[in-house]
Design a protein that fits this description.
alpha+beta, 7-stranded antiparallel β-sheet, 6-stranded antiparallel β-sheet, 14 helices, 22 strands
């Protein structure tokens, strides 16, 4: 989700609550476009991360420290000169802009009390951290923007700071009678809740209607194009609350629809102005897909995890997203190796399958040879065909003949063809089975890469590729140290459930961890993890069977399907053939169930 104005409003409220009145204790610049401020307030210490990174600008409280360069950059030194031990007066957000203003007071070299402002602009590639004096003149910024770079606004020492109005967007808070968010504005609105919208409701509603009705685009897009601080997701949420299709043209709504949309819009703005936030992360299975500072009712079918702090939301969301992205990058080479090998083996399998299909004629040639030996004595020399009764089907068939050969020579020719095709069929059947098993093995490795969450998980997968001959071990070195462990869950009824992350762990779980009466689960006919439920000699309740099956569905290639068929049986009935690939097993008696892959309610242990 975009780091929108509503998220900034929640951050502003949180920072005001914990930082106002505090003093700047340390200032660090761990990255070229990032600051880490340590602030002491009310006997506690806080770290505030400010990032103007073009790809991921952020502002939130964190408990993690970062290593700083040995020599502090110039901007960091300047801030230390002016703001070391400065006291934070207030933290505000102009309108619903993606901007936070931290106003501080400090003593200058002469001992006079001065005010300074640190402005954090969270605007994608235009993000910046700007240091201004009490008159909003720029002292310096973490990024210098000259006139050659931007014709809209220069961000250079000595220039006046202002918010560029590059689009004709309106402040959505003006619909409820306030212009900015901060301690004072929030208090005044709470003290006179809804007085402004009640007083100006017809005028505000008409202005809202007029602004949107002239926009020939979907409603949700019109909302974030007309008003500052709204992201596409929040715009869709407003439409959803108003029971409108967000993709309908904004200029095609009737008066009743505009009224419903206005009511929900104003309600959300009042909620923000009152500081009634509900930070949460939306998960699809175990993957974070969205976060917000307010409830997202349009994701009612997903799992929403509430948090007490928007900083906790941002820290968790971007950490988990970063982990998934980093693992994807780290596993890119392995994925390419697996994909290349898969494509090569699939092509080989298709070619062999075509060749096997061509050998289907062999039985026909055998019958031709037998019939010629049986009835060929009556063939006249030079005949090009012979009609004979096929005693296998009691049908008359026509056998093509080489008119230069005798009947027995024609029979021998057909038997030779039959023998050649039979040998080809037998050789190809064995080869095709080997290639099919190799494809299944590679698909299982691909599934393991999909569920890998840590670099340690990749080490074991790489080791399997080395031992399978797809990667050469560098310098004849030793096997890598394996530290990856299976996933460990606890069922609602207290039973321990283990899930293999790769083929080696699958074998380990099935044939070493599990005992004979433990239960074994696996997705039917598709690559996936072995799932083991430790019974400890007890009978499993139905709920535990279902939860283990959900885990088998989730950790398989079928996790996106609505239902996945899961086979389950006691471990003692699972066998591993001699010479089988890692993770490959056979079983002949099992139960089955079709189940979804939602494991959001299951508790995962470290």
């Amino acid at each position: 989700m975009a780091f929108d104005g509503i998220t900034i409003a929640n951050i502003t409220q949180e920072l005001n609550h914990v930082l106002t009145g505090g003093r700047i204790y340390k200032i660090a610049q761990p990255e070229a476009d990032e600051l880490l401020l340590t602030i002491k307030n009310n006997g506690s210490q806080y770290r505030l991360l400010l990032s103007a990174d073009a790809s991921l600008p952020l502002i939130y409280l964190t408990d993690k420290n970062k290593q700083s360069p040995l020599t502090a950059p110039g901007f960091c030194m300047l801030l230390r000169k002016h703001l070391q031990n400065a006291r934070i007066l207030d933290i505000t957000q102009p309108g619903l802009e993606r901007i936070v203003r931290i106003r501080m007071e400090h003593l200058n070299e002469m001992g006079d009390l001065c005010n300074k402002t640190l402005v954090i602009e969270i605007m994608g590639k235009h993000s910046n951290i700007i240091f201004c004096n009490e008159n909003d003149m720029i002292i310096d910024s973490i990024k210098h923007i000259s006139g050659m770079v931007s014709s809209v606004r220069e961000v250079l020492p000595g220039k006046e700071y202002f918010i560029p109005q590059t689009q004709e967007k309106q402040n959505p808070l003006s619909l409820i009678g306030i212009e900015s968010l901060g301690p004072n504005s929030i208090t005044s609105v709470i003290g006179d809740t809804l007085s402004a919208p009640d007083r100006d409701a017809p005028q505000a509603r008409d202005a809202f209607h007029h602004k949107l009705s002239g926009m020939p685009m979907p409603i949700h897009k019109a909302l974030y194009c007309a008003y500052t601080g709204l992201s596409p997701v929040i715009s869709q949420e407003i439409c959803f609350r108003a029971e409108l299709d967000g993709d309908m043209p904004a200029n095609a709504l009737d008066a009743l629809s505009y009224d419903k949309l206005f009511k929900q819009f104003v309600s959300l703005m009042q909620q923000i102005a009152d500081g009634h936030f509900a930070p949460n992360i939306i998960y699809e299975q175990k993957t974070p897909i969205e976060f917000a500072a307010v409830p997202l009712t349009l994701y009612a079918d997903k799992h929403a995890v509430p948090f007490s702090s928007i900083s906790d939301v941002l820290g968790r969301y971007y950490e988990e997203k970063s982990t998934l992205t980093r693992i994807r990058q780290k596993s890119a080479d392995l994925r390419k190796i697996v994909q290349t090998a898969l494509e090569r083996n699939i092509k080989k399998y298709d070619l062999q399958a075509k060749q096997i299909k061509d050998t289907e004629k062999k039985e026909k040639y055998r019958i031709y040879g037998e019939l010629l030996n049986t009835y060929g004595y009556g063939i006249e020399p030079g005949a090009k065909s012979m009609d004979a009764l096929n005693y296998y089907t009691n049908e008359t068939i026509t056998i093509p003949l080489d008119d230069t050969l005798t009947a027995s020579e024609n029979a021998k020719k057909y038997f030779d063809k039959y023998g050649k095709l039979k040998r080809t069929y037998e050789a190809l059947s064995e080869l095709t089975m080997e290639v099919k098993q190799e494809i299944a093995h590679l698909e299982s490795i691909s599934a393991s890469l999909d569920i890998a969450l840590q670099e340690d998980d990749l080490v074991q997968i790489k080791e399997e590729l080395i031992e399978s001959g797809y990667i050469r071990r560098k310098g004849g070195g030793k096997k890598a140290k394996i530290t990856s462990k299976p996933f460990h869950y606890i069922s609602s009824d207290g039973f321990h459930i283990y899930v293999g992350k790769n083929n080696y762990q699958n074998d380990e779980l099935t044939f070493k961890t599990a005992t004979g009466n433990d239960w074994w689960f696996h997705a039917k006919g598709i690559p996936g993890s072995h799932v083991i439920v430790k019974t400890e000699g007890k009978e499993l309740p139905d709920r535990t069977f279902e939860e283990a099956a959900k885990l088998a569905a989730y950790y398989s290639k079928g996790r996106e399907q609505e239902k996945v068929e899961i086979d389950y049986l006691q471990k003692k009935n699972v066998k591993k053939p001699n010479g089988a690939k890692p993770g490959f097993v056979v079983y002949y008696t099992n139960y089955s169930m079709a189940i979804g892959s939602d494991i959001s309610e299951l508790e995962q242990l470290p």
